[in-house]
């Protein structure tokens, strides 16, 4: 982690250099369309200025990295989550010090139990979002149903299939090495995290991993199983911008969103484990979830149709009067978690 700030500085200067290139391309396109040959001459005269800006940014990057060489500070957790969600695929290949490896956070304050609940965060989040802005479902479940909460952190800008495959392997290692026999395992995924959890099950089925034997629940909170209209809108915007020479450089900027974000357009194919229950919980800003507005608006990011996906074998529920972020910290959501996890634990122990 010692070089995290240095890498962040290099990323910032590289991003600024990219913005300069976009501005120059837009300047060139606008000048050419509006002034013809005169515009081309104007662009040629401006080129050295853009070049000097790039040289200045390159020098600034070197100075910043040198100044931060001995810094032990790290980026704030929320910044790390946003960076990984927005461009995590490129971080992994070009700025690995900033790319989040998939790993598990385990609370050491409580003795381990054989009832594990694994929480998988959403896009541009980290595991700390489960407890940063409200009551932590995991610690409350430890008190109320005797579960041990485990929290996954992953690079949400990478493909859902990639993170699902890695999570499947990690869960196999956790169950095999847990200090007490695991009798009950449940996955709770928020938003993208639900897709990652379901993909982990899919990968485990393909590889015949042993942790499937103790899997009881796959709970998805506001997960876009059928995709998100927000991401589909971004894809359309990129196409529209690319249709005009003056705005085509901006299309590159929109198209640069991460592979993980692009996966949100249509969802990800997953196979369900027959011995486990899928539980899909959706939210809608409308007080009445059955109203037309409730079905259309959803939680403003994910529609109720996508979050409940009628093509899947699952228990479904919709909570009214909630936005997408409220699914992380709400008493009605927690009440459903307690009901689902208590019933499965009773079944396993019986």
From TrEMBL:
<feature type="domain" description="DUF676">
    <location>
        <begin position="115"/>
        <end position="232"/>
    </location>
</feature>
<dbReference type="InterPro" id="IPR007751">
    <property type="entry name" value="DUF676_lipase-like"/>
</dbReference>
<dbReference type="InterPro" id="IPR029058">
    <property type="entry name" value="AB_hydrolase_fold"/>
</dbReference>
<protein>
    <recommendedName>
        <fullName>DUF676 domain-containing protein</fullName>
    </recommendedName>
</protein>
<dbReference type="InterPro" id="IPR044294">
    <property type="entry name" value="Lipase-like"/>
</dbReference>
<dbReference type="Pfam" id="PF05057">
    <property type="entry name" value="DUF676"/>
</dbReference>
């Amino acid at each position: 982690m010692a070089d995290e700030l240095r890498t962040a500085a290099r990323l910032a200067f590289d991003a600024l250099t990219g913005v300069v290139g976009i501005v120059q391309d837009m300047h060139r396109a606008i000048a050419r369309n509006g002034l013809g040959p005169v515009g081309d001459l104007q662009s040629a005269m401006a080129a050295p200025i853009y070049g000097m800006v790039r040289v200045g940014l390159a020098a600034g990057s070197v100075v910043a990295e040198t100044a931060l060489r001995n810094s032990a500070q790290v980026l704030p957790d929320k910044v790390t989550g946003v960076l990984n969600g927005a461009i995590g695929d490129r971080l992994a290949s070009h700025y690995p010090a900033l790319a989040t490896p998939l790993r598990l956070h385990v609370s050491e304050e409580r003795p381990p139990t054989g009832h594990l609940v694994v929480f998988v965060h959403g896009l541009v989040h980290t595991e700390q979002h489960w407890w940063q802005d409200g009551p932590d479902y995991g610690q409350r479940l430890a008190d109320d149903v005797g579960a041990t909460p485990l929290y996954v952190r992953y690079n949400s800008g990478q493909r859902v299939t990639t993170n699902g495959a890695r999570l499947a392997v990690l869960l196999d290692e956790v169950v095999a090495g847990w200090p007490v026999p695991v009798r009950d395992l449940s996955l709770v995924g928020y938003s993208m995290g639900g897709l990652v959890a379901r993909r982990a099950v899919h990968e485990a089925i393909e590889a015949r991993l042993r942790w499937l034997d103790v899997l009881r629940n796959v709970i998805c909170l506001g997960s876009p199983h059928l995709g998100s209209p927000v991401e589909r809108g971004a894809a359309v915007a990129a196409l529209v911008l690319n249709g005009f020479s003056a705005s085509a450089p901006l299309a590159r900027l929109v198209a640069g969103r991460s592979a993980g974000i692009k996966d949100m357009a249509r969802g990800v194919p997953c196979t369900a484990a027959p011995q486990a229950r899928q539980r899909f919980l959706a939210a809608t800003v409308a007080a009445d979830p059955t109203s037309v507005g409730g079905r259309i608006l959803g939680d403003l990011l994910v529609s109720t149709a996508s979050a409940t996906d009628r093509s899947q074998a699952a228990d479904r529920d919709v909570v009214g009067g909630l936005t997408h972020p409220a699914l992380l910290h709400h008493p009605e959501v927690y009440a459903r978690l307690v009901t689902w996890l208590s019933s499965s634990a009773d079944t396993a122990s019986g």
